[in-house]
Known about the structure:
Blueprint: E1 5-7, H1 11-16, H2 18-24, H3 30-44, E2 47-51, E3 58-67, E4 71-81, H4 90-104, E5 109-112, H5 119-127
Parallel strand pairs: 4-5
Antiparallel strand pairs: 1-2, 2-3, 3-4
Amino acid sequence: MTPTIRIADTDEEIQACHEVMAQLRPHLASSDFVPVVRRLQTLTGLQLAYIGDDGVKAVAGFRISEWLASGRYLEIEDLVTTADERSRGLGSALFDWLVGHARVRDCDHLRLVSSVKRLDAHRFYGRKGMDLLAYYFHMSLK
């Protein structure tokens, strides 16, 4: 059975995504989650897609943007399945939905940044057909 995937539009839907998202982003306090997501929606176009008819089981944070160098793209900022639902195909279904969403919105490609420590995630992205094309550099300012 194909899971139902929805975009979190209401504050209640966004808040319902917090518990799963916090497994990947534990620094995000529950009380701050909706205001942060709403701010990022305004600033960057962030959206949350989720799977869950009887409780959220998987969440993806994504946005559509464009670069001079490479054109229009869908960027996956976060992709997480709740710990007790991993390896049951939900992350794969959500990833495939994002690919389809990107195609419908005329994106040239799909992108994501993943921590160098997330080796299981890297293997998953490789199985989904993604290539490692660049290094991501960082400098802390605070």
